[in-house]
Amino acid sequence: MSYRKCVTSTAHGYDLATKDLEPPFAIVDLDAFDANADDLRRRAAGKPIRVVSKSVRCRELLDRVLARPGFAGLMCYSLAEAVWHVEEGTTDDIVVAYPTADHEALRLLAANDRARAAISVMVDSPEHLDLIDAALGHGHPRIRVCLELDASWRPVPGVHVGTRRSPVFTARQAVAFAQEIVARPGFSLVGMMAYEGQIAGLGDAAGSALHNRVIGWMHRHSAAELVRRRGTVVRAVRAIAELEFVNGGGTGSIETTGAEDVITEVAAGSGLLAPTLFDGYSRFHPSPAALFALPVVRRPSRTVATLFSGGYIASGPVGPSRVPSPYFPKGLRLLGFEGAGEVQTPVTGDAVRDLRLGDRVWLRHAKAGELAERFAEFHLLRGGQRDRAVPTYRGEGRNFG
Prior knowledge:
Blueprint: H1 11-17, E1 25-29, H2 30-44, E2 49-52, H3 59-66, E3 71-76, H4 79-88, E4 94-96, H5 103-111, H6 113-118, E5 119-123, H7 126-136, E6 143-148, H8 171-183, E7 187-194, H9 197-200, H10 209-238, E8 245-248, H11 254-258, E9 265-268, H12 270-273, E10 290-301, E11 304-308, E12 325-328, E13 333-334, E14 344-348, E15 360-364, E16 377-382, E17 385-391
Parallel strand pairs: 1-16, 2-3, 2-9, 3-4, 4-5, 5-6, 6-7, 7-8, 8-9
Antiparallel strand pairs: 1-10, 10-11, 10-15, 11-14, 12-15, 13-14, 16-17
C-alpha cells in the first residue's frame, strides 16, 4: 500500500493523533517525510543529495534525513546558520548557497578551524572576495569558496527566464573569475553551483493544458541549453582548480540535473515536506508531510466558518499560489475577497456545514521551510500516533533572516 492510501492521512487520523493539543500547531508526518525522502533518492539515481536547510529549518528533521542513505551534507542559506550547524555537530559538509555580507559570521568562520574545513562560501564576483578580505583583514586563514554559475535561460537577447543570481554566465566569465580566485591569497576554489530555478521551481502540471505545454516546452529547451553550457563551463574551470563538487538542481529538476556527467551532487529540500507549490509537477507526486491545524472560532453564516489566525503567506510573487490551502476536511476553500488573514481566516465550501466551533481545519503552506518560522515546534507523527515535539529554528531561538 502506498503512503497516499494510508488511513492515518485523513482528518480523523490527524485529529485523533493530536487530540490533546490546542491549535494552532504544526505537524510533520514522518511516514510521509520518509516516503518522500525515498522518492527523492530514487529520482536522484545514484547522485548524492545535498539537503537544502531553508526548506526544513528543523535540526531534528535535518538529522533524520542526513542519516538516510543517498543524502550527504547541507546547503544552508546563511553563513551564520552554517557555523551554527557545525558547532552543533549536524554535519561537516556545508555549502552556503547565497553570498554573505555578514562580517560577524565571517569572523566566526575564520576563527573556527572545524567550520573553515566544513563550510564553502558562495561567490560570484571579485567584490565578494574583497568583502571577505575587508571583514577578515589581509593574511586571513584560507576560506573555501564555491563559484556560482548563472543557470537561467536566455533564448534571445533581452529575455531572462529564471532566478536573478550570479553575473557569471559564460565559460569565459567563469574562467576569468576562477583564475582570480586561485591567484588570491586566503581562498580555495573547491566547488561550483548552478541552480536552474526555472525548471526546479516551476511546475509543468500546475495550470491549464496550454500553460502546462508552454512550461514543459520551456523546461526541455532550457535544460538542453544548460547541459551544453554547464558542461563547457565546468570542464574549463576544472582545468584551473581541482573541484571537490559540482552542485545543481532542486526538488523539481533532480532527474534532468542528476543525469549530467559534470554534476557530482544534486540539491533538494522542499520535496521532503511537499508544500503546495510542488503539487504541480508531472514527473513526481510527493505526499504532504507538513500541515498546520487552526480552530474554528466563528460561524458568520451557514456557508462560512472562520478560523483563528492563518495568514502564513509564502515568499515570492504575490498571488494565489502563495497562500495556504485548506486540506482537511476536503471541500474547503479560502474566500477570494478576504484570503488568509493575520488573526482570522474564513473558509467556505461543502464541508463547512459540518464544522462547529472548536473543530479543526488542517492546512498546507505554499512553501516548505517557511512554516517553521511560524511555529516554535513541530509535532512529529509516526504510524498514526503522536511521537514527540521537536523545536524548529524558531524554537531554538534562531532566526537567520
